[in-house]
Fold these 2 entries.
Entry 1:
Amino acid sequence: MNILKWLNKTIKILSCVDNPKYEAEFLLTYVSGYNRSFIITSDRVELSQKQYQYLNYLVYRRSLGEPIAYIIGEKEFWSLSLRVSYDTLIPRPDTEILVEQVLFKIINNKSTLILDLGTGCGAIALALAKSCVNCYVIGVDKSKKALDIARINALQLKIKNVSFLFSNWFSHINKKFDIIVSNPPYISKKEITLLKKDIFFEPFDALISDKNGLSDIENIIQQAKKYLFIGGWLLIEHGWQQKIQVQSLFKKYNFFEIESYQDYGGNDRVTIGRHLINKN
Ligand SMILES: C[S@@+](CC[C@H](N)C(=O)[O-])C[C@H]1O[C@@H](n2cnc3c(N)ncnc32)[C@H](O)[C@@H]1O
C-alpha cells in the first residue's frame, strides 16, 4: 500500500481522536523515519510489508484510546525528550507554568535546593535541573517503577544535578529546601468518569485524590513548612476549579505571599505561597 492510501484509510480509523490527520502522519514519520515534507510530497511511495504491519498495530492501539506518548514511549516536556511508561503520568504542557514560576519568579540564578514531590518520569525535576545549573533537585515518588524511569531520563539527558528517591510524600525526607514543588494527584473520583478515555491508561495513583481531589494537596501543604527554610516557597499544581480551596489551605497553614497563576488555556493552575514565620 502506498503512503497516500494508508493515510486516507488511517484518518478514517482515527476519526475518534481530536486530530486524526496529524496523528496518522505522526505515526507514519515515527515508523518510517520519513519527515513530514517527504510524506506530503512523495505520497505514492510504497510502504514495506513490515512498516505496514507495524503501523497498523500502532493505529489499532491508538484507536482503543491509548495515548500516543505510551505507544511511542516518549513525551516532550520543556524541550526535553522524556521516556514514559504505564507507570508514569504523561507530562502535560500546562505543568510548564510551574517550571516557569520557579525559574523566572523565584530562583533568578541563585543556588537553590529544590524538592519535587510526586516526580513521576521526572519531568519537573529534570526541567528545573537542566535550566538551572546552580540548583540541585531531589525528585521523590512512592512509585518505584516511576523512579526507575526518572533515573533513566536523567542518565539519557546527562543531567547530573538531580537525584531521585522513594518517599511517601515527606516520609523519607530529612532536610530543608529553598523550594518545594508538586504536581500531586488532584482529580476527584466523581470527576474522573467525565474525562476523556485516554486518561484511563494512566496510573490511577497519579491522578485521583480523596476529599474532592484535595486530600494530597492538603497533606503536602500541611507538612511542607517543616521542610522549607524560612523564606522558602511551596508551589502546587491543581485543578482549574480548585484555586479558592487551595488558596484557603495555604492560608490555613500560615503561608504568605499567596498567588495563583493560569495555564496557557487561561485556567487557574498553580498556586504558590511563602514560608515566612515559624508558626504552625
Ligand atoms: C500527577 S502525577 C505528576 C507526575 C509528574 N510530576 C508530572 O508533573 O508529570 C502525581 C505523581 O505523584 C505520585 N504520588 C502519588 N501519591 C504519592 C505519595 N503519597 N507520595 C509520593 N508520591 C506520590 C504518583 O506516583 C505520580 O507520579
Entry 2:
Amino acid sequence: MIPPAISLQSVRKSYGANLALADVTLTVRRGTCFGLLGPNGAGKSTAMKIVCGVLKPDAGQVSVLGVDVARDPFAARRLVGYVPQDITLYESLTAVDNLQFFGGLYGLRGATLSNRVQDALRRVGLASRARDRVGTYSGGMKRRLNIAAALLHRPQLLILDEPTVGVDPQSRNHILELIRGLRADGVTVVYATHYMEEAEAVCDDVAILDHGRVLTQGALGEVLARHAPRAVYVAWANDAPPQCPEAEEIQAHRQGWVLRSPQPLTVMRRVMDQAESRSIRLEALELMRPSLESVFLSLTGTSLRD
Ligand SMILES: Nc1ncnc2c1ncn2[C@@H]1O[C@H](COP(=O)(O)OP(=O)(O)OP(=O)(O)O)[C@@H](O)[C@H]1O
C-alpha cells in the first residue's frame, strides 16, 4: 500500500503544563488539499511544526510520505515545504536575494537556483517586482513571497499556516489559485486556517481540532453531511415566527427566521400550511445549504478564545 502524505498516530505534545496536542491521529491523503481547522490555540501550528520536524512530539508516531520523522528527520524535511504563520523574510533585501538565500539553505546553487527562483516568483505573481526590496512590499506580496520561499526545493508536500491573514481579496484569491495549481501538479497541500469559506473553496478533506483533540475529520462533503445542522429560512409578512414543534431552535435572521430542525421538509410543509390557512404572504422559504462555518461553530462552540 502506498503510504499517505501524512500520518499522525496518537501524537501528544505539552509546553510545560500546557497540553497543546492531547492525542491526535490524522491521515492526509496524497495529492489532496487538506484543511486543518480550529479556533485560536487549538493546536494547529503545533501539529504542523511536528510534521515538519521543527518540534518533537512527547509521544506518538509521525510519518511524511512514508518517512518516519523521528527516525529520519532530514529526509522528511526535504519532502516538505513549510510556510510559517509569521513572515520570515529579510525586509532590506530584494525578493530575488531573499529567495537566493533560502534556496541556498536547501543546497541549491548556480543556474538551478536562479531558475527555481524565477519559477517561484512567477508562480506567486511577483516576477515584475523581483528586484524591489521586500520592505516596500504590501502585506499580501510578503505573504506570497513567504510561500515562494517554501517552493524552491519543489516539495511534494506543502504546509501553509494561515497564509491569508491580513491580505486583500486579490492576494487571497491568488493564494487560493496557487494552491489549486499546486494540487493539480500533484503536490499535497495542508492548509491551516480559521476562514471556513476558504477551506470550503479549496479543501478535499478537513479536520477540525480544538483543545488539542480532533473533533472530526473526513472528506468535506462527509463532514458537512455528518455534522451540519439542518435548517430552513423563512421570511413572511408577519411579526411572529411560524409555530413549529419540529424546530429545535428559532433565530431571527435577516428579514425572517432560521428554524433548525432534523426534519427540515416537515418544517417547510408546516410553514406553507400556516401561511395558507392564515393568509400570510410568504416572501422566502429555503432549505439552507449546510456550511462548514455552521459545523465549525456547532462543534467548537461560540465562546471566545484569546
Ligand atoms: N512555545 C510555546 N510555549 C508555551 N505554550 C505554547 C507555545 N506554543 C503554543 N503554545 C500553546 O499551545 C496551545 C496550542 O497552540 P498552537 O499555536 O499550536 O495553536 P493554533 O491552533 O495554531 O492557534 P492559532 O490559530 O492562534 O495560531 C495554545 O494553548 C498555546 O497557547
